[in-house]
Amino acid sequence: MTKTLSISAGPSVDALEILAVNHDDKPVVIDSGDFHGRVTVRIKDFRGVPAEGVPIAKNASYFSEPYGDSMTYSIQAQGVFTEEVSAADLVFGNMFDHPLRDSLPYGTSIALRFASFVDPTIQHDLYADKPWAFSPLLATVYRAQANRAEPGTWSAHNVAKTMFEDKAWPPFPTPDGESKEHFTRDDIAPLFKTYDNGELVVSKDLEKDKDAIASLGSPDQSVASHARAKWLGIKQHREDLMVTPDDVITVDFCNGYIDFNQLHLKIPYGGLEFDLGKYYNGQPVRYVCKNIRTKKIYFIVQFDLVEDKDEKEVTDSDSNAATTDVAQEDSKDNTNGSEDGTQDNADDNATGELNKEKSS
């Protein structure tokens, strides 16, 4: 039976809902005691399970723009964390319920070295009974944007929906519709600032780092991205940087290395490729945003392979059609047999009547 891709999201494993892939206007809204926000996923050439009542979208405009044309997937999240958390403790990555050690492909060590090259902050143990791989969220994503509101702005709201309607809430980046932000901007400079008479300024104790902080908010995205990687590459910096309940964090985690439709991984350096389908052991791939210290989970995006319902319906339809054809043939044979028998009896009766006439 063919498997197809199903993507869901939610605040926990027990509260996931099917996500409308490639529909930026229909993100999964997450409301919990620890996080209020929304999540969307884009998959190039998607042909998996659509959300209920939403037509399947094979692609998103995201992939036709220079920003995303080299990507194969994107996980975009935006929200506020209800308690202060350091950039070191706020992590994003994968975790599994069961061992992978017996299904890991040859060359895994090379893939892990490549992962560390791309993201030096990654930590992992894929040989554990419950394998995991995590990186600081703000360091590992392709783009990270922070919008700091005045103190108490978001605590005045109880649900994400009313937060989205507040004028202080930033747009959800999308190249579709009328959003002012087509893509996530790299700018975490607001995390180093405080409000002074209604104006956001660099904290006095960080005056010595003013130039570095300015680079973090540079309009030149390559400069801002490089500055973020450099700053957060230092452990002490991650531990000192705090994300507060007044901050709306928007991130885009994306790359062009994994084709989830084909279950194919391609490492650009060295030309190493993996057919992941050969090593699939039935476990879903979960992307988890959590507090590594307190273990609180903020949101989950789950990629799973499920039975292709369309194929099953076609198979069932073909089976039913075949059964109907057989039944019709049987019925036809029975009918023909009945008609033949009736005709034989009629002929016999006619012959008998004819013989009677001859006798008389």
3D architecture notes:
The structure is a single chain. The protein has 360 residues and is α+β, with helices and mostly antiparallel strands. The chain has one domain. Helix content is 27%, strand content 28%. It has seven helices and 19 strands. It has a seven-stranded antiparallel β-sheet with strand order 2-1-19-18-7-9-8. A five-stranded antiparallel β-sheet has the order 3-4-5-14-10. α4 crosses α5 (221-232). It is globular, with a radius of gyration of 31 Å.
Tally the helices: what do you get?
A: 7
Unreliable stretches covering 5 or more consecutive residues: 313-324, 329-360
Instruction: State the end-to-end distance.
Output: 75 Å
Spatial order of the strands forming the largest sheet: 2-1-19-18-7-9-8
Class derived from helix and strand content: alpha+beta
Secondary-structure element string: EEEEEEEHEEHEHEEHHHEEEEEEEH
Percentage of residues in DSSP E strands: 25-35%
Helical fraction equals 25-40%
Described by the principal axes of the CA atoms, the overall outline is globular
Domains counted in the coordinates: how many?
A: 1
Overall radius of gyration: 31 Å
Largest sheet: 7 strands, antiparallel
Look at the structure and give the mean pLDDT: 86
Based on DSSP secondary structure assignment, what is the total number of beta strands? 19
Keywords:
single chain, 360 residues, alpha+beta, 5-stranded antiparallel β-sheet, 7 helices, globular
A few lines on this structure:
The protein has helices at residues 108-118, 137-140, 160-165, 210-216, 221-232, 235-240, 309-359; strands at 3-10, 17-18, 28-31, 35-43, 73-81, 85-86, 90-95, 123-125, 132-136, 143-148, 193-196, 199-202, 242-243, 247-255, 258-259, 264-267, 272-275, 285-291, 297-307. It has 360 residues and is α+β, with helices and mostly antiparallel strands. Strand 15 (258-259) and strand 16 form a beta hairpin.
